[in-house]
Amino acid sequence: MSSTTGVHALVRRTHEERVLAALRAHGALSRGELAKRVGLSRTTLSEITANLLRRGAIIVADTDAATRAGSGRPAERLALDPASGQFLGVDFGHRRVHVVVADASHEVIAQGLERYADDTPWTDRLTRAFELIDRLSRDTGVHFGALQSVGIGVPGPYTSARQGFPAVSWKKQLSPEGVDTAFSERFGAPVVVDNNTRLAALAEAIQRPDAVENLIYLRLSDGVGGGLVVNGRLVAGSRGFAGELGHVTADPTGAPCRCGKRGCLETIASVSAVLRACREAGADIETLDDIATAVRKGDPVVDAVLRTVGAAVGRVLGAAAMTLNPREVVIGGEIVHVAPVLVEQAAATLRYELYSIPSDQPHIVRAAQLRDSDGALGAIAAIFHQSPLLAGYPDPTSSVEHAPQQQRSAL
User: What integer pLDDT is reported at residue 70 of this predicted model?
Assistant: First the structure.
């Protein structure tokens, strides 16, 4: 793509965003009213609105016949299409994919979850994701003709092309390489790919704008990962590995990890590891719901397992906190909401690990506010690019080179 074409595409996209922002803020407007509010010529505005109408981003809501003074043909009033999926966030976990769709008002209008086995190849994971998106469209009436951008989170140490790093995966047969191309070809929109736990950290930090200057985020899910906010910025690191707390060694003689090492925190604190530890301890546990039931009943076996896991989590977080001195530590993932004792034990262990650090503002360890949608919501937040946390990241909407040629010409 030539530099002239690229600049033209970015200018067109900027004009579109201004029109959409005006409709989002003021509701239905005539083209004349839009031209005044966004400062575009009638000719340019006509081209922009025609393209948005064609793609389904906006609709003709009504005319100004009821309020129009004098004679003349009533002017059409344009509005956002409430069924138009403008932004798509996708979080690929080790055992499930979660999809969130947001409209032009940045409101979530559809979301869904699809599960798969841990060893499912990426080609099949992509198929499951596309089937889920199609099903959401059928069930909710949401369409993707006006999709502006796609944000995707993937597990493991992944470095995004938009950061100038090559894609990295520990297991070639499960490599997420090509995910961006598949989505770009499917939807004809710019695609951003990043580590899903780092995106979850972004979503969680945005929920607490008063506490994002220095934060450590750890997610306990099918895998275990982390994200770091340092000096008000989401940190990727020199090669995109920052925050990989799930692969810090917690027990040198522990179980083999998917990364090839032994005794990583993921082998102790992932959901599957906790369930397995409960069964090995003699508890009749198969699912997180079983753990929730056992916790409500005060099962001593399950309680002991959760406290052991929490202590391991606290030790790893203690090492990270000793290094980074965060204001807050957040633990996310499905299990923390059904087993609060795990977070309580992690907090107690962390306090012990940091006992030597004098402070009148102790580290706060809390369960994440968001749940399983955090990674997908973080992917959408990265698309919006409106958080100061992303100051070190390039603007994903400028990555029009990821869109197919036929779509670029229409931007």
Answer: 57
| DSSP per-residue letters across 74-136 | PPEEEEE-TTB--EEEEEE-SSEEEEEEE-TTS-EEEEEEEE--TT--HHHHHHHHHHHHHHH
The domain boundary, picked from 48, 64, 80, lies at: 80
Residue 404 corresponds to which tokens in the numbers above?
């197919």
224 and 354 in a single domain? The answer is yes
Cβ burial of 103 (10 Å; 0-12, 13-18, 19+) is: buried
pLDDT value, residue 309: 97
149-154, strands of its sheet edge to edge: 108-115, 96-102, 87-92, 149-154, 191-195
Q: Is residue 319 pLDDT above 60, yes or no?
A: yes
Looking at the fold, whether 223 and 323 belong to one and the same domain comes out as: yes
Helix and strand tally (H, E) in the chain?
14, 13
What's the pTM? 0.72
Distance from the Cα of residue 131 to its chain's centroid: 19
Q: For 354-365, give one letter per residue: b (16+ CB within 10 A) or e.
A: beeeeeeeebeb
Amino acid at 348: A
Beta bridge partners of 98: 91, 113
Please state, in angstroms and as integers, the Cα–Cα distance from residue 12 to each residue in 44, 45, 192, 399, 409, following that order: 9, 10, 20, 14, 10
What is the domain-level CATH number for residue 189? 3.30.420.40
Sign of the C-alpha dihedral computed for residues 386, 391, 396 and 401 taken in this order: positive
Q: Are residues 245 and 307 in the same domain?
A: yes
Beta strands of 124-190 (E only): which ranges?
149-154
| Same-domain check for residues 155 and 227 | no
Angstrom distance (rounded) from CA 195 to CA 186 = 21
Q: Domain containing 316: what range? A: 209-367
Do 265 and 312 form a contact (C-beta atoms < 8 A)? yes
What does the pLDDT look like over 53-107, one tens digit per residue? 887 788 888 876 656 655 667 788 888 888 888 889 999 988 889 999 988 777 8
